[in-house]
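Re: folding output
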Amino acid sequence: MPTSKGMRYLKAAKDALAYVKKQVPDGPANQPKQLLSLNPDNWIRQLRAMGNLSRTRDKIDQDTESQFVASTDALRSARVWAEAARKKHGGNCGELSALAFEYLRLQGVRPLDWAHFIKHDHAFVIIGRPAGEKVNNPPDAWFYDVVICDPWYDRAGFWSGMLADYPTTDTATNVHYNPTPDNLPVWENIK
């Protein structure tokens, strides 16, 4: 049973979905079934989404290079992906989940994971998983507050109720973000 903390995470996830939808109104570009639809509006939206994705990916490439973002720096990558998706209004699961992740991060929601599946290509956000915690069987109490935020599917819900679609054994984390005043990095200039 979720606690009030879990309910706050769920509201934050829904807010993030609304934000992503506002920033990328045509939706993901990799939904070719839209082109098979008999509705011309779906064709137009899908073709626009494909063009937006192309411009988004070009911006990601340019910004990654100009900002010297290493491929192993997932937090900075998420920021670059999110900014490109916001500016160019395009993306698929990676870009949309990065946009949700960055929105939640800037709203002060902690802890956050920018996550993906191990066995197939799909990215999403996990809200509320403590660092290093694995889901035990039976699950620990913290698990019932953890929320999945998946902008590609436009879904937000408690992970405990979505295990068929988000199995804990098939989930890996790109970034776990949970800075606290006690463990913030300290930067100093070296002359």
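--- second protein (sequence, then structure) ---
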Amino acid sequence: MTAPSHQRPTERYPVTGAGLGLRLELIEELTADPPAQLDFLEIAPENWMRVGGARGTALRGITEQYPLVCHGLSMSIGGPTALDDAFLQELKGFLDLHGVRAYSEHLSYCSDTGQLYDLMPIPFTEQAVSYVAKRIRHVQEVLERRIGMENVSTYAVPAGEMNELEFINAVLAEADCLLHLDINNIFVNSVNHGLDARAYLAGIPAERIVYAHIAGHYREPDDLRIDTHGEDVLPEVWDLLDAAYDRFGVFPTLLERDFNIPPLATLLHEVDEIVKRQRRLQGVSGADVA
């Protein structure tokens, strides 16, 4: 049987169109009445890998309806301690079991001898490039797939030898991995560090993009933005997504909402915004977009 068009990956991307981060409170609605504008879902595998019973059954039902991507929380790719190979093997089994189309992690670290429960910035140095790239290559060997690394939001950056974009590009090249592009994080960092967000976009290797996130953030006074994923997407972040589509063409884009989660119908209004902006560039109405 041929899969529905929104479930067939393109040669360029593992999924297509517009996606949404899956939360437990959304499963019943998603299963009962699958929204037409929703093309794929994303989960944090750490929250689901050892789940059985009703929740496990619900996840299997969802993965039979929607293509699934995974965005990890705890690998700590830039951390000082050894990677957990037992975790990686368990993760591989989970990705294979659910036919996960893409897996990504944060280009940061979140642990030392224990979890730090925050995403800490990696120093932008040649030594860090080599260290992180070696760890990414190891993860890719164990998982038997290329992974995406996400550009993260930061509030203070350790002293280094290069800027953020140079560091990311060096890691992508040396590790031969993909880029999980976070539009909101580019904007947050542009405000927090006085960067040119569109110049940042211009330096991204388009062929590395696997899919993207868009999200809301909190505005503090004195030019500080906090990446909360708990608010609506701001107009300036939507504008930056448009700029990215104009530069790279349409790529799969997922709405992140981790806190202050409204009803599904409210979230779908923002998913509709993604679809509208994708179709504006494509010049289509009702057709598939990558």
